[in-house]
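dumping this here before i forget
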Amino acid sequence: MKHIDKASAERLLPFPELIAALREAFCADISVPLRQTLKLPDETAPLGTSLLMPAWNRSRYYGVKLVNIFPENAKQGLPGLHSVYVLFDGSTGVPLATLDGDVITSRRTAAATALGVSLLAKPDASRLLVVGAGRVASLVAPAIASVRELCEVEVWNPTPPSAARCAAQWREMGIPAIPVNDLESAVRRADIVSCATLATSPLIKADWLPPGSHLDLIGSFTPTMTEAAPACFADAFVWVDTNEATQKSGDILNAVRDGYLSVADIKGTMFDLCRGTRANRFASMQRTVFKAVGTALEDLAAAIMVYERSIDPPC
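structure:
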């Protein structure tokens, strides 16, 4: 069984190829059961949460991502989240590889965002605002730059030095990026607003969003998290990555609760977008919203890509 470390996994997951692999995966026959959530050591006094996220395809692979979230780790100087991915032969159950789960998660998340942009944002969208500067947010601009020609990239974060570091990192990649302090003005200038935060109260207001803009919401993967005010969902074409978003995302739940959205108003999922079963945009001035909570399908596609490229490196 191979072990593929963090640096190797990052190198073997270039965004153009990963985005294409995700699009193929959303068109393929892949089984994705609901994730299992375990409270450790027990439900009455949990120290942490463990998530088990399985998926398998009809050809030859089965994989499981195991995610451990221990909020008190910070007191010991440790990260609060650790994850590992295990890939198996789907026909025999033989273990094939272990992979760094954090790399798999962060890169497939950014790639899914870029896939959503490629399918929903206006073809001429060229001004990007990234809200957040963490592990996933730092990958958003490079991912989107592989599907749109960006002439202007701005990044905002509650901690300005983090935004400055993120912008500097992107400039080294050739992306024209600057940090900003005024979130409202930055949203009003943007064609694409991509939020990758752990916010528990709204950051984006509806009247800031320009006509024809695309709002991408990466955070809010629990009912208590939210990045956009409920009114942001009104008068917009709303898409989700999977139907689980309607049960898990505080953004969606709050918009439904406040009457700005009904589940029936949601246009469809990433499966519909990739398979072309529903129209994604009818007018250039139509606002679009894409809300993702993540899916084990994306993890499997990324893990397969890393494994196959590790045993048969691209030229």
